[in-house]
């Protein structure tokens, strides 16, 4: 199996390097794979990038978008972009931990950001750019960040107090931080591919999960979850990444045009993220299938008090200096839940 993968990787790299010198006038094809639905913020942003790339390059570049895990599931897609099987992804930030860049798991820390202003100070500032640069050693270029939004908890019972989580099996992405978060609440975290979550909730393999409302609604989780708590306890965002050899092999003028397309698609992505999530919350309410639960100030403070210890617990894994630098930049005070 290893020999086969190495062989495919060499062929992909050879194609990229040779292609970089042979693309005088040929159309360039970019496969962009992602695991969510087309009508989510990420799905719409990927389609917008494809549209703008075609426009700005005058159809010299064709971006083929494959949503809903059509090509690869969560655990497979990063290897696929490293091998050149696909050229672009927008994986959630938690996925870079298993790749060996554990610093990205800082974005999984609960209650790290109170709003988008604080968040963007990090993602589009020096800290966020330094994190993207760490991907280069993995054969990947980090280009930018896309928002999805703040996460809500869901289960078949109302989650209002910390005690309500006790014993629940809760689906998470593969992230040590998210594992610690659910354990701090008294739950039992279960790592699972996003494409498998609906069936797992339907059959009771897991009791609940966390998602931005747009993912919750477009994946029809409101059909199999009776309660969704508007907790805004964590953030889900994406890094748009490309195969490094492929991107650097593109003609410079094409890269310039694609950079422009991506910059405009990023503005679009972040503008629609909050709008889509707000709309999804209302759609969940209107469905009548899931009760939307609101936390009191006291309940939210109790959640935060239970979860703030995760910041300290994860300092050795993520980096105490990184966590402290974000605390300073956003004004986060661990002593004041």
TrEMBL record:
Q: Which Pfam families match?
A: DctP
InterPro entries cross-referenced by the UniProt entry: DctP_fam, TRAP_DctP, TRAP_DctP_sf
The membrane-spanning stretches of this chain are none
Q: Which UniProt keywords apply?
A: Signal, Transport
What PANTHER family does this protein's entry cite? C4-DICARBOXYLATE-BINDING PROTEIN DCTB, PTHR33376
Family according to the record: Belongs to the bacterial solute-binding protein 7 family.
Record protein name field:
C4-dicarboxylate-binding periplasmic protein DctP
Organism from which the protein derives: Candidatus Magnetaquiglobus chichijimensis
Q: Which taxonomic lineage is given here?
A: Bacteria, Pseudomonadati, Pseudomonadota, Magnetococcia, Magnetococcales
From the UniProt record, report the name of the gene that encodes this protein.
Answer: dctP
């Amino acid at each position: 199996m290893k020999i086969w993968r190495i062989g495919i990787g060499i062929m992909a790299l050879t194609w990229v390097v040779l292609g970089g010198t042979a693309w005088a006038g040929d159309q360039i094809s970019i496969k962009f794979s992602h695991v969510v639905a087309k009508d989510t913020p990420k799905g719409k942003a990927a389609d917008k990038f494809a549209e703008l790339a075609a426009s700005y390059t005058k159809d010299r570049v064709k971006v083929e978008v494959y949503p809903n895990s059509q090509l690869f599931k969560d655990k497979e897609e990063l290897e696929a972009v490293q091998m050149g099987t696909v050229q672009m992804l927008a994986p959630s930030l938690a996925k870079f931990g298993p790749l060996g860049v554990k610093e990205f798991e800082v974005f999984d820390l609960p209650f790290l950001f109170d709003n988008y202003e604080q968040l963007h100070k990090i993602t589009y500032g020096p800290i966020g750019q330094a994190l993207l640069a760490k991907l280069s050693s993995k054969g990947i270029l980090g280009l930018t960040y896309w928002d999805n939004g703040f996460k809500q908890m869901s289960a078949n019972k109302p989650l209002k107090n910390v005690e309500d989580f006790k014993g629940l099996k809760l689906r998470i992405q593969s992230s040590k931080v998210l594992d610690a978060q659910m354990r701090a609440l008294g739950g039992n975290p279960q790592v699972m591919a996003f494409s498998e979550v609906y069936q797992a909730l339907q059959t009771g393999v897991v009791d609940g999960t966390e998602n931005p409302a747009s993912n919750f609604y477009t994946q029809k989780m409101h059909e199999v979850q009776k309660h969704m708590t508007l907790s805004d306890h964590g953030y889900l965002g994406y890094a748009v990444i490309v195969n490094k050899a492929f991107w650097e092999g593109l003609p410079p003028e094409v890269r310039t045009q694609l950079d422009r397309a991506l910059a405009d698609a990023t503005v679009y992505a972040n503008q629609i993220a909050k709008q889509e999530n707000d709309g999804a919350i209302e759609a969940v309410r209107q469905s009548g299938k899931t009760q939307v639960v609101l936390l009191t100030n006291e309940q939210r403070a109790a959640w935060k008090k239970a979860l703030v210890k995760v910041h300290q617990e994860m300092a050795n894994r993520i980096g105490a200096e990184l966590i402290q630098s974000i605390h300073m930049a956003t004004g986060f005070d661990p002593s004041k839940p």
